[in-house]
Amino acid sequence: MPPLKAWGILIFLSIIWGTSYILIKKGLEVFPFEQVASIRLGVSALLLLPYLAWQFRKINWSRWPLLIVVGLTGTGLPSFLFPIAQTQISSSSAGILNSLTPVFTLLIGALFFRSKVSLLKFLGVVFGLLGAVFLIASGKQSGTEGNIWYGAFVVLATVCYGTSSNIVAFRLRDMNPISISATSFVMVGLPALGYLFQTDFVSRMQTQPEAWTALGYISLLAFMSTVMASIIFFQLVHRTNPVFASTVSYIVPAIAVMWGLFDGEVVGIFHLLAMALILIGVYLSRR
Questions:
Q1: Which sequence spans correspond to the domains of the chain?
Q2: pTM of the entire predicted model
Q3: pLDDT tens digits for 127-178?
């Protein structure tokens, strides 16, 4: 893929994913974290189910264990981990902490997939990691309300993303990215949808005045940030490499912070210093 086109897709993807944190925040105003995650996964599965039915016979089902792992690590677990984290930290902080994804993409690729790592690229992701660590360590001043453990949920989500992107790049490169998305999402999304209706979701929809608005936000999250963005991301991984594709997480924080400011969140010096470290990491990782 030509570099200019690759960067254009990367920026577009960053805008989509950078918006996801504010959408999660809006969903949490009405629904608990487990319902936000289950709605997101369920809607994503329903959107992709027609495609899966159409392509069912063309999919290599012998790879179903890998597809389940991609579904769990690429969407399933992070869909729960981010709402859990955002019950205690701001959407801006969650977006910034997502910058850890390239670090774990690099480390998992080197440890388990024998991918090569240059010194400058390694230094770049280290700077990104330092920025994220600084943000968490700054505690209440940066919107984490002093609870470092809730920031750890985002860290765990980035480990999941790093695992998923490497599996797609090194084990499923010959599969159609839309087929990967459809199969893996339906595998985790339909069980999540079944779980949703075991909760008080229906009663909330009937009694909460803002429930339909919140459902709309989460449905938009499912369509844009889960289904469409994941397909684009898998295409980018296939046509470039997992570390380049994962640098989307360096641009996402800026979008998340802008949405946070628009929604009245306080963005202080700690956010800006963390962002500066991350931007240094972006520069070094592209050398």
A1: 3-285
A2: 0.86
A3: 877 887 777 777 655 555 556 678 889 989 989 988 998 898 888 878 887 8
Q: Residue count of the chain, please give it.
A: 287
Question: Token pair for residue 83?
Answer: 């709402």
End-to-end CA distance of the chain: 18
Cβ-contact 181, 48 below 8 angstroms? yes
* 51-106 confidence digits (pLDDT tens): 999 988 888 888 889 999 999 998 899 999 999 999 988 888 888 888 778 778 87
d(CA 71, CA 181): 8
> How many CB atoms sit inside 10 A of residue 181's CB?
31
Instruction: For residues 123 and 97, give the distance between their C-alpha atoms in angstroms, rounded to a whole number.
Output: 18
Distances from the Cα of 229 to the Cαs of 9, 70, 186, 190, 263, in angstroms? 10, 15, 16, 19, 23
| Sequence-ordered strand ranges (E) for the chain | none
Taken in order 79, 231, 22, 93, is the CA torsion positive or negative? positive
Distance CA 215, CA 202 (A): 12
Q: Which residue type is seen at 200? A: D
Under DSSP, is residue 268 helix (H, G, I), strand (E, B) or coil? Answer: coil
State how far the Cα of 27 lies from the Cα of 21, in Å rounded to an integer. Answer: 10
Cα 188 from Cα 77, distance rounded (Å): 9
